[in-house]
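Forum: Protein Structure Q&A
Topic: Joint prediction for protein chains with partners

I've read a bunch of threads here and the consensus seems to be that you should model interacting components together rather than docking separate models afterwards. I'd like to see that in practice. Below is the full input, 562 residues plus whatever partners are listed. Could one of the regulars post the assembled result?
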Amino acid sequence: MRDFSIMKAGEKGLVVDFGNVIDPQVNGCVHRLARVIAANMPDDIIEAIPTYRSLMVYFDPLHISRESISDKIRMHLDNIAESGSEGDTTTVVSIPVCYGNEFGPDLDFVASHNKLSIQEVIDIHTSKPYQVYMLGFTPGFPYLGGMSERIAAPRLAQPRVAIPAGSVGIAGSQTGIYPIESPGGWQLIGRTPLQVFNPGSPNPFLFAAGNYLRFTEIDAATFEDIRRQVESGTYTPLTSTIERGGGAECAL
Amino acid sequence: MCTVIQPGMLTTIQDQGRIGYRAYGMPVSGVMDRYAATMANILVGNEPDAAVLEMTLLGGTFRFPNEAYMAICGADMQGTLNGKKIRNWSAFYVPANSELAFEYAVSGCRAYLAFYGGIAVPKVLGSRSTYTRAAIGGLEGRALQADDVIEIGKAAAMPYAARELSYHHLPKYMNEIHVRVILGPQDDLFTAKGLQTLFSSSFTVSSRNDRMGILLEGAKIEHVSGPDIISDALCAGAIQVPGDGLPIIMMADCQTTGGYAKIGFVISPDLSKLAQAKAGDTVTFVECSDAEAVSALAAEKQSYEKAAIG
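Posted by a regular:
Agreed with the consensus. Here's the joint model:
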């Protein structure tokens, strides 16, 4: 059974920690526990926050004690371990990206740094779905796993002061999208016309931790077309489903 | 209705925070000083989670064309109503065409102005709290500016009689702040000497303190082998210690995840003290058990209940 530990995070919090690593299976356990807790303990918890390697659970200690909430979590983890792989599916959200030019000013650098052509970088970046390990940094910012080392690139020596919302970047062997305009040091390779975070919408976040993202290449005309649809509220993001698996299932 | 004549240094609309979206990377925000803001709401007869104005260091000046009833709690910003001094930690009637003015805080850092009926701005993701970094909540997601107009919520049977909070419930804002800490989740990444430094030295609040976090200066807290962890969740109260060994206490607007080891958490009833800290104040930490923290939380709740019945 995979080791986990339950630690304190103030009088209202506990952290179920599965190990200090970035690993698809460890992250799979985090999200599986998050789902089980959401389904079975809604009255016991205030909020649960999944990260790469742990689930922080927030509760009201005047309503339920740390001991009883920890016991319940241990029981659910035992059940997960006994029931084995879930074998269910999760959502893959398709993210159309216009690569290069003014949308991706660092695409040339990423290509030359890796001795690849620009098209090769795009082909590798769009070749497979990425697991959303967690959201953080700014509302809706996805920490994605599984990018090929072949297109890895160092952060900018001097971070940009303002990166436009929708920018898609690479930092080390990570890739991600900036949901809102923010400062940042990632190499920008393209931009999506989708709104990753739209607080006025009934679905304010385009995706959740535990989902997968797949980038698809679009041209500037399509970018403009989708941007208009997004603005008028008529765009529906393309989604598909994928088996949880490929190493991302939770094996406790 | 309330018109802003002078906004003060940093005045924002806040309630008890945006709960339920941290899994999406959305910070909680909300009032920095839960105690003072809740007491202000109790004094005017609002629900504790009604939105209030949070003023920072230098208060604002406001004009009220219509009568209103409001309370001021927290830092003492020497409030005056139509030129006449008003008492801190009290609720008072404001006649039509009044001007309410605040100055520099002579004690504490943040003051809370609660209006009977609350503040009628739309909720964004379940909360009226302003989170300026994503420009959401409050008034257009930003701090108040001169000439802004704030709509006060409608409510029946406005009280008129002035009310003061009993002296039993008045906190004293000191320049030496003492807070209780529950160790974890990564206290094992610090040496025994590092833990001793945390609990035996006195830290100074740096000028780098805001709604996101309070950076402390002082003795360096020693890690076993470096500060970096694979990011896990953060929330208000978490004490992160980056590579320079100087602790940062995360506050209301803190990011939801972070990559520095967290030696411990300041218990939530003591965050109100830190919300009133100014640059140059000193902070000391004492270790606290879970049971002690839960009693402190229960005592805070009891204060609210007692204050509500007068």
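The domain at 90-243 of chain A is CATH 2.40.100.10 (Cyclophilin).
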